[in-house]
Fold:
Amino acid sequence: MKATNRLLILLFILLANTLIVLGQSPLEKKVTVKFQNVSLDQALERISKASGVHFSYSDDLISLNKKVTINAVQKPLKSILDELLKETNIKYTVSGKQVVLYPDNQKKSKR
Structure:
């Protein structure tokens, strides 16, 4: 009986941990990336490989030619994206395991 209780407790703990990981937003995922003077497009490709998060955007609406540099060690994806996109007119939102990039029309109209 004791072995059965221990097994049930262990199973419960493993299930609870799995649900916590599955419920984690892609933006909370810790990522390590380092690059210098690469295009934003290349940076997003590397971040995608490091994090397993996919980026979606329209080339017609946003340009990813800007050169960027970052050295991030175990930082949340959100802070990395905020740093890379801070001086652009690009915003993002999350849809499942995908980050969708879109133009920030308000920022553009203020210039």
The CA atoms of residues 85 and 91 lie 7 Å apart.
